[in-house]
Automatic annotation (TrEMBL), chain A:
Range of residues in the leader sequence: none
Alphabetized UniProt keyword annotations: ATP-binding, Nucleotide-binding, Transport
Source organism of the structure: Phytoactinopolyspora halophila
PANTHER family: ABC TRANSPORTER, ATP-BINDING PROTEIN
Higher taxonomy: Bacteria, Bacillati, Actinomycetota, Actinomycetes, Jiangellales
Positions of the ABC transporter domain: 2-226
Protein name: ABC transporter ATP-binding protein
PROSITE patterns named among the record's database cross-references: ABC_TRANSPORTER_1, ABC_TRANSPORTER_2
Coiled coil: none
Keyword Transport: yes
From TrEMBL, chain B:
GO CC terms of this entry: plasma membrane
Transmembrane segment boundaries: 20-40, 60-78, 99-124, 144-165, 172-195, 233-254
Domain of life: Bacteria
Single Gene Ontology MF annotation: ABC-type transporter activity
Keywords: Membrane, Transmembrane, Transmembrane helix
A Pfam family reported for this protein in Swiss-Prot or TrEMBL: ABC2_membrane_2
Keyword Hydrolase: no
Organism in which the protein naturally occurs: Phytoactinopolyspora halophila
Protein name (Swiss-Prot/TrEMBL): ABC transporter permease
Amino acid sequence: MITAEGLRKRYGSKVAVDDLSFNVRPGVVTGFLGPNGAGKSTTMRLMLDLDNGEGETRFDGRRFAEIRHPMTEIGAVLEAKSFHPTRTARNHLRMLAAGSRLPKKRADEVLEFVGLTEVRNKKPKGFSLGMAQRLGLAQALLGDPNTLILDEPANGLDPHGIHWLRDMLKALAAEGRCVLVSSHLLSEMSLMADELVVIGRGQMIFNGDVDEFVKKFTQTTVLVKSPSATQLTETLQQMGAEVEPNPEGGLLVSGADASVIGEIAHRDGIILHELATQSASLEDAFISATGASEEYVAHDVREEAASLVDGQGAHNETAGGAA
Amino acid sequence: MIDALRFESTRIRTLRSTYWLIGLGLLITAGIAGIVAIASSDEPLDDTLIMTVLTGGGEFATFIPIFMAIIGIFAVGHEYRHGTIQPTLLAIPQRSTVLLSKIVIVLFTSAVVAIVSVAINFGVGTLFWGEAPDLTASPLNEAVPGYIVMVMIYSLLGIALAQLFRGIPAALVILLITPLLVEGLIAGLSMVPALDWLQPILKFLPFGAGQRLLAVTPYDPQGGPEFDYLDRWASGGVFAAFTVILLAVAWYLFKKRDA
């Protein structure tokens, strides 16, 4: 169990992490989400005593610095290429094993586990990002730890690699380990994570179950297709539901369950061609939850295009007027 | 601490730069020793000649000291240059233990290299001179250990500079520029009559003072500023104190800063 209490980090006048407290339970994969610059990496560094800040993190009741051989209890990778380019992958792991009182053969075991046996004696300066990520995972798994903290481990992995990573992390969590993983790949996170810690501008937005997060930050709608759409719309609006036309046909109803809509249609003798609950995705929930917390906001492409067209039109008009 | 020493020992042994720096240092100094020994094979042996051969020209070309300083710089600088400070601190979170283990291993390495280098050069000198010099008589009985101490201080200075600047380039620049330009500049300025008040501080310039560790003759101005250095070990103490002060500041910052 990871218990973070009151984590806080300031760079000059900028507060990077603002009084964050959360728990990471064993037995599940916990996703760590937030927009760019939200403070995810800083939070992880604070948890592992790599950065000096306020608050404390306890791993099964102990601070990181109190653990005699941390790699045997906590496996962490915060940067993909944290290795010397000319020290072989095997020697990199043997060096860390030596500092953690682990047998040399453990380096070969984890290299085989992550699929890098063939390149174990190669210099990692030629490793692709995906291979570097695998070496990082081997490093995290070196001490067979009960806790894994991984910052963007899926970056650079090919689809097979991502699939492998997902299965591996879920399997490790199923063994009762704590797994905290940050990722920008929300579709991947929705398949991998059971629980979430979501932050924005260094502040806590949500800590809990994935489904609960999606429910909390999105509205479930029901798609209805009926030849008597007008009559059904009036009835649903009278009972307080919101009804909007679906751009791809039919009606989108919010504020009424599919079962209620079905019963109303049956009562009023309205024929339904389609009645389907549309659940929002993790991505929808993430955008809804963190929209106000984005540190770096780019222009909306559609608005930008529209303004460019308007600008062009205005320019043409001016040019025409001048002519 | 034992685990940290095992870690650091593995770290230094699994880097190619360790081997080529040591190999190159031994080769160059043995080469210089050979050239000087051949050139002086008909001359009577004196302390200056013997010391030049034993140190591979240590009085005028500090190859082994600089190369060992670079090993010290790499011991810390690589951690920041390649981001390995993170896995290092994830394996051994006690920062003082990490730094202390680097100091112990690098000092041990530099001492062994300096002794091996002197032994090789002693063999080279003996080969060409046809006789083995007596190292038990003064001042060689102090100058040879002084040289080994100087090499060790250089390697410690490398660690201190790399930890202070958390990287390799700045540490290398300071290591090479300070003795060449800064100390040379201060010595030169002290010869200007209006600035002769600088002369009393010349004996406290660290690199110059450090060179006195392997001196076998009194300081000869040879047209330069006239002043007296402290004795061999006091001068060595000046160089060591400079290094220890830098190391203390670097150590404090290492514990205080983010990794």
